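Team,

Forwarding the record for the chain on the shared tracking sheet. I've put the sequence and predicted structure together so nobody has to dig through attachments.
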Amino acid sequence: IRIVDWSDGSAPQRKEFHKKQKYMYSRLKKIENIKINKPKGGMCFWIELPKEITGEAVYMKLAKRGVGILPGVVFSEKSYNYIRLSFAQCNEKEIDEGIEILEKVIDELR
């Protein structure tokens, strides 16, 4: 087993991911009636939706609009009203567009 020291070369990437995490968090906080689980090192947010909205329903509507997320039930049947959002592959413009569409979908499903 080889141990790799990521501390030297990964600083710019960590800084960029942290910037995107902060930006997405600031956008998500504006959506009413959701709970946000801020990552402590990963590149995904876990969003708890209102109890009457399933992650699968949100997934289906977002997929039709070109926004990729994962419903919580992919990870646990107890997470029926959760979704997972990644910020790893998006820029700020894509985050803005995706969050705007997410907010509309949640409103439609209420």
